[in-house]
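Many introductory courses stop at the sequence. We go one step further.
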Amino acid sequence: MAGEAKDRDVVEVILEDHRTMEELFRRMRSVEDDRAAALEEFSALLIAHGEAEESEVYGALKRFKGVDNEEVEHGEEEHAAGNESLLALLEVDEVGSEEWDARLEDLVKAVSHHVDEEERTILNGARESVPDERRAELGAAFLRERERQLASGCGRIENVRRIVGG
């Protein structure tokens, strides 16, 4: 995997995670799926993805002219809102209850809004302004940090509480 990671464009890697999140939303909404397992997978991915973006990608992108620094900072605020919505869902005891479904929709709304904005502003700016070689370096750094986060159990409710409480 490490050899492959070196050639992965950070924009493409982030977009793949976004599509995976959308698929996990579909699974969490489906009464025929294992919704608790989908939430567990989503929680780990959302936290690992956001932490890797903030530590390895966002700061580096701010240095490029075509990337709007305010949008990058706004992206960090939206990560915090998504994490708060995730925590609210994780704290519901009964998967599939009315409260669980309502909090799931809050999470979907928060994350979908962020994904849409990030793709239109930050990622398009990165694709246009950041050289291919630098995007590949950022892709490798993003993947390393995301894997480190995933290996640490970053999606556990205790860790999400720590991140939200901050």
